[in-house]
From TrEMBL:
It holds the Pfam family Hydrolase_4. PANTHER family: ALPHA/BETA-HYDROLASE, ALPHA_BETA HYDROLASE FOLD-1 DOMAIN-CONTAINING PROTEIN. Residues 81-154 form the Serine aminopeptidase S33 domain. InterPro entries: DNA-binding_regulatory, Hydrolase_4. This is Serine aminopeptidase S33 domain-containing protein. It comes from Paramecium sonneborni.
Length: 349
């Protein structure tokens, strides 16, 4: 039974990736001369304290993308997309799932309770930062499954699902077949024990984790981008193909180079960015957003002004330093000329 214990641990308690707050980077960033301020906060879901960060910039609309990391990761995973998203007017929110990063929690549930946490996060964002014109979910692996399990939520318009599986039980069976090889017939024997152990410890059923049953929604207001790596050995790309076939809304499928954990190529990210920006918001100024976030806009502008003042001071200091160097060079040249003249006069005498 030790094998079942180890396998169970891989699913519900992978290594927790911890980090220091300094790794989140500067509180203020500049994208195309637009100041972006990061606000770190804590919200409660399932009586657990979960840690999040929101990157805010001034805009007439409030478009929010929540990045959902994979199972053995944390919110640092989504930081690479801050500037890319802000360039198209989308605010990025990153957070640590329960049991991950700096958030509380003992177990992960492969999307079961994580989807409930995302709902609480969306409620918190609208309450604190203002009404959201468009919610977008971008998830990878477990995060992608979490996103797809929220396909029915009317507040969400766009889903980016990178390396999602169809059903958790199917993935468990496939990984078991890889491990046992010719003894794969043993899988059907141990899965009931594994399922029972996960139910007892983490209170969720692997048979109920099925985004395949969620994506068949037909809606003109929803868009799905399915992405999978061609050589993914953990979640085979056919899972994304099956999800794509089952989806009845506007959809795209891309099979990219790499494996389950490969950093996605710039060309792929460019396509995703364009997909996110397909929706053009015609609504007027979002006054709730501008009112609730005015203090952040002002803080960002003050930081930007201070930064520009420091730049000007540094430029003046640099100019003065250059002038001093020029004066020293001229003086040195003059002194050298005087010595040359003196040497010549002595020679002539």
């Amino acid at each position: 039974m030790s094998f079942i214990n180890d396998y169970c641990k891989q699913i519900i308690r992978p290594p927790r990736r911890t980090y220091q707050m300094q790794q989140l980077g500067p509180k203020l960033r500049l994208v195309q001369n637009v100041p972006i301020i990061r606000e770190d906060f804590e919200f409660i879901s399932r009586q657990l304290k979960l840690q999040a960060s929101y990157f805010i910039s001034e805009s007439i609309h409030h478009r929010c993308l929540i990045y959902l990391h994979c199972n053995a990761s944390c919110r640092l995973e989504g930081l690479q997309y801050v500037e890319r998203l802000q360039a198209i007017g989308v605010n990025l929110c990153v957070f640590d799932f329960a049991g991950c990063g700096l958030s509380e929690g003992k177990y992960i549930t492969m999307g079961t309770y994580e989807s409930e946490d995302v709902k609480e996060l969306m409620n918190y964002i609208e309450c604190r930062f203002g009404k959201v014109d468009e919610f977008i979910l971008w998830g990878r692996s477990m995060g992608a499954v979490t996103a797809l399990m929220l396909s029915q939520d009317p507040r969400i318009t766009t889903y980016i699902a990178d390396s999602a599986f169809t059903q958790l039980r199917t993935v468990v069976e496939e990984l078991g077949q890889q491990k046992f090889g010719c003894f794969s017939f043993m899988i059907n024997g141990f899965i009931p024990f594994l399922r029972s152990k996960i139910i007892n410890e983490a209170q969720f059923d692997i048979d109920h984790v099925s985004p395949l049953n969620c994506v068949n929604i037909q809606s003109n207001s929803k868009r799905f981008y399915f992405l999978a790596a061609k050589t993914d050995q953990l979640v085979h790309p056919r899972h994304s193909q099956i999800l794509y076939d089952q989806c009845k809304s506007y959809k795209r499928l891309e099979l990219c180079d790499g494996n389950h954990n490969t950093i996605r190529q710039v060309e792929t990210l460019d396509q995703i960015t364009k997909f996110i920006n397909l929706l053009q918001i015609d609504s007027p100024l979002n006054s709730d957003y501008t009112n609730k976030c005015s203090k952040y806009f002002n803080e960002a502008q003050q930081c930007l002004n201070s930064y520009r003042i420091c730049q000007l001071e540094q430029e003046e200091q640099l100019k003065e330093y250059v002038k001093q160097l020029e004066r020293k060079s001229i003086l040195k040249s003059y002194q050298q000329q005087q010595r040359d003249i003196s040497d010549l006069e002595q020679y002539l005498e």
